[in-house]
Amino acid sequence: MIELVVDQVHYQYPKAKKETLRGVDAVFPAGKTSSIVGQSGAGKSTLLYLISGLDVCTSGRILLNGKELLARDLDSYRRNTVATISQSYLLFPTRTVLENVLYPLQLAKTEKQAAVAEATKHLLSVGIEKELHNRLPSKLSGGEQQRVAIARCLAAQSQIIAADEPTGNLDEENSNEVMRILSDLAHNQGKTVIIVTHDRILAEQTDLQYRLENGKLYSNERNA
Asked: Are residues 2 and 77 in the same domain?
């Protein structure tokens, strides 16, 4: 089972006068949803970038099952272990819905017929019906596009889902549906789901809750 540990992490942007993160500690276990809330500019996305292997901390450690990320192949980590979901969806605009979800399977050199079957299965699992699979993302609603992005994470078989404001552009109904899917990934598929959000109502639905203030992370754990 995946366990991601953030241990005394500090981060300071080049030329910045003060640190964005100051001695952050956290544990993100598999099978749980975790949220990080805080005001704009608090460093929430910075912490998620570090967790995703998109940047490295100034000092401190991030460990995956006891081994530091810096001791791993970060390209492989980003490709095979962690997947990022953004409020802007990050779908390829000129590829169809199905082609977007096929992308990680093609990188893994999965045989074409098997890849199509796998991508189709994941799209159906998040409620994207077959009549939408050959459309471009721009022809889908925001909620549908976000579910396509989640399906692409599933196709990549990523164990860690790092979601940056995943419901930021969605209405209440679609926000609830995306949260239901993310919770299912954690509770029923054993994924490690980490959600950065400014929405405290959304955060209250997660199993583990963190608050980032003045570069420090505070825990408010509750029972799932």
From this structure: yes
Q: What are phi and psi of 153, to 5 degrees?
A: -60, -40
Q: What is the largest CA-CA distance in the chain?
A: 54
Alpha carbon dihedral 8, 218, 179, 27, in 10-degree steps, equals: 40
Same-domain pairing of 171 and 73? yes
Residue 69 phi/psi, 5-degree rounding, is -60, -40
Asked whether residue 64 falls in the same domain as residue 166, the answer is yes
Residue type, 2: I
- How far apart CA 7 and CA 69 sit, in angstroms, is 12
Q: CB of 25 within 8 A of CB of 16? A: no
| Per-residue confidence in pLDDT tens, the chain, 224 aa | 678 999 999 999 998 999 999 999 999 999 999 999 988 888 999 999 999 999 999 999 999 999 999 889 999 999 889 999 988 888 999 999 999 999 999 999 999 999 999 999 999 999 999 999 999 999 999 999 999 999 999 999 999 999 999 988 888 898 999 999 999 999 999 999 999 998 888 899 999 999 999 899 999 755 44
The reply to whether 56 and 165 lie within a common domain is yes
Considering the domain architecture, whether residues 132 and 164 belong to the same structural domain is answered as no
Token pair of 24 as six digits: 């952050």
Look up the pTM and report it: 0.89
Residue 42's nearest CA partner among 8, 18, 7, 14 is 18
Contact 35, 57 (CB under 8 A): no
Question: What is the count of structural domains for the chain?
Answer: 2
| Same domain membership, residue 25 and residue 98 | no
